[in-house]
Design a protein that fits this description.
This protein has 174 residues and is an alpha+beta fold. It folds into 2 domains: 34 residues; 123 residues. The chain is built from 1 helix and 10 strands. The chain binds calcium ion (CA) (4 copies). One calcium ion binds next to loops.
C-alpha cells in the first residue's frame, strides 16, 4: 500500500513536468508558426499603425501598415530570406488601395526586388482580372491580360511588342 502511494506521488511531478514541456513546446510552436511582431507609430499620432513580423531566426517575414490610420491594415509586404543575398527581400506586396477591406492589388517582385507581376481584382470577387507582366519595371508592362467578363478566363491579351496590328488571316485560298 505504502509503496503504491510512493509511486503515485513520484508520478505527479513527472506529469507537471510533462505539462510544462507541452505548454512550453506549444508556445514555441506558436511563435514558430506566427513569429513575433513589433508595432511602430509610423504616422506620429501616438498609436501603432505599422507592424513588423519576425520568425524565430529573427528574420523579417511580414510588414503591415495601416496607411490611412482607420484601424484596418491596408498594406502588407511579404519578406523571404535569400541565402544568396544574405538578407530578407520583399517578394510580394498586397494593397487595399481603395480601402474597402479587400486587398485587390497584389505585386510580385524578383530577387532584385524589381516588379515582375501585378494583379488587380477590379470587381472585388476575390479573383484577379487584370494581370500585368513586367520584363523591365522602367517600361510599360510587356504583357497585360484582361478577364473582362470576370469568368476566370483572360480573353484579351495585350503585348507591348504588338504595336502593329496582326496581319489579317484569310479563311483559305480561293
Ligand atoms: Ca487602413
Ligand atoms: Ca480594396
Ligand atoms: Ca475579379
Ligand atoms: Ca473572361
Amino acid at each position: 500500500m505504502k509503496q503504491e502511494q510512493k509511486a503515485t506521488t513520484g508520478i505527479i511531478p513527472f506529469i507537471i513536468l510533462c505539462l510544462l514541456l507541452i505548454v512550453g513546446g506549444g508556445g514555441l510552436l506558436y511563435f514558430w508558426l506566427t513569429g513575433f511582431r513589433i508595432g511602430n507609430d509610423c504616422s506620429g499620432d501616438g498609436l501603432d499603425n505599422c507592424w513588423s513580423y519576425f520568425n524565430l531566426q529573427g528574420q523579417m517575414t511580414r510588414f503591415e501598415k495601416d496607411k490611412n490610420c482607420d484601424g484596418n491594415i491596408d498594406y502588407i509586404d511579404y519578406y523571404k530570406f535569400s541565402p544568396e543575398l544574405g538578407r530578407e527581400y520583399v517578394f510580394r506586396t498586397e494593397a487595399d488601395l481603395d480601402v474597402d477591406g479587400e486587398f485587390e492589388t497584389v505585386s510580385f517582385f524578383n530577387h532584385s526586388e524589381k516588379l515582375t507581376r501585378l494583379e488587380r481584382d477590379s470587381n472585388a470577387d476575390g479573383r484577379a482580372d487584370v494581370i500585368s507582366l513586367f520584363d523591365d519595371p522602367e517600361k510599360p508592362p510587356s504583357k497585360v491580360m484582361y478577364d473582362e467578363n470576370f469568368d476566370g478566363k483572360f480573353e484579351r491579351i495585350k503585348n507591348r511588342s504588338e504595336e502593329t496590328p496582326e496581319p489579317e488571316t484569310t479563311g483559305g485560298k480561293s
